[in-house]
Design a protein that fits this description.
By secondary structure, the chain is α/β, with parallel strands linked by helices. It has 7 helices and 5 strands. It has 2 domains: 1-35, no CATH class; 36-153, Rossmann fold, CATH 3.40.50. It has helices spanning 2-19, 22-34, 38-48, 72-79, 84-96, 113-117, 131-144, and strands at 53-58, 61-66, 100-105, 122-128, 150-153. The longest helix is centred in the first third of the chain and has 18 residues, at 2-19.
Length: 156
């Protein structure tokens, strides 16, 4: 039931917006972007145009993810960081202990692994089972880090 109501509402909104003059359509688009949804709008458009991946520059370098990633990549795009508190805790831990081994199970696109892996005394292993995230994770390896770290795909 919810799906059919959602479809009807979307159809009504699309028809209304399409019937507006160009200036009205532009105003609706501007309002969507201003209301804190710019990345969601961008992601939706990218997906409609068959864009598979998007790269965003931030504190951890240029990070690539799926165009449909409106959670992790959108935060990185807006702030330049991801999980700042957790990343700072991990970095401080390894600095206080002169390095160690970091295993990131469910590494996604690597935004908690990359800050830790910048410490040359830390050996990092990033494990990601989802194929698209794994592909993007491995892409980060070459683009962001000057040294080796390991990324593994888990096929269940």
């Amino acid at each position: 039931m919810k799906t059919s109501v959602t479809s009807v509402v979307k159809s009504i909104i699309a028809g209304t917006v399409a019937s507006l003059p160009r200036g009205g359509r532009d105003a609706v688009t501007d309002r969507l972007v201003v209301k804190g949804m710019p990345f969601r709008v961008f992601s939706k458009l990218a997906t409609q145009f068959n864009v598979l991946s998007v790269s965003v520059n931030g504190e951890y370098g240029i990070i690539q993810s799926a165009a449909s990633d409106v959670t992790i990549l959108s935060v990185y795009a807006l702030t330049g960081r991801w999980a700042s508190l957790a990343n700072d805790l991990f970095q401080d831990f390894f600095e206080r202990h002169d390095g160690g081994t970091y295993i990131d199970v469910g590494a996604n696109i690597g935004l908690t692994t990359i800050p830790v892996a910048r410490n040359p005394n830390v050996r990092c292993f990033a494990i990601e089972p989802e194929p698209t995230n794994y592909t993007n994770l491995v892409t980060q390896e070459w683009r962001v880090l000057d040294f080796f770290w390991a990324a593994f795909a888990c096929r269940l």
